Amino acid sequence: MGMSSLDRRTVLALLPAALSVSGTAIAAAPDSAPRLKFGPPRRFNFGWLVRRAATLAQKPYQVPVAPVPDLIQAIDFDVSQKIKFRPEFSLWQGTAAPYPVRLFHLNRFVGLPVKIHAVTGDTAREILYSPLYFDYDGTALAQKLPQDLGFSGFRVMNGPGIESDWLAFQGASYFRTSGAQDQYGASARGIAVDTALSTTEEFPRFTEFFIAESPNAPVAIYALLEGPSLTGAYKFECVRKDGVTMDVHAELFMRADITRLGIAPLTSMYWYGQNTRCHPDWRPQIHDSDGLALATGGGERIWRPLIDPPAVQTNSFLDTNPKGFGLLQRGRDFNDYQDDGTFYNKRPSIWVEPKAGLGQGAVQLVEIPTDDEIHDNVVAYWQPAAQIKNGDKLSLDYRLYWQDEPFPPKDEARVVATRIGRGGIPGAPPPKNQWKFVIDFEGGPLARMAPRFDITPVVTLSRGKLEKPYVIKVVGTDRWRAFFDVSADGPDPLNLRCFLKLGNKSLSETWLYQFFPATA
Question: Which domains does the chain have, with CATH numbers?
Answer without folding.
Answer: 8-403 (2.70.98.10), 414-519 (2.60.40.10)
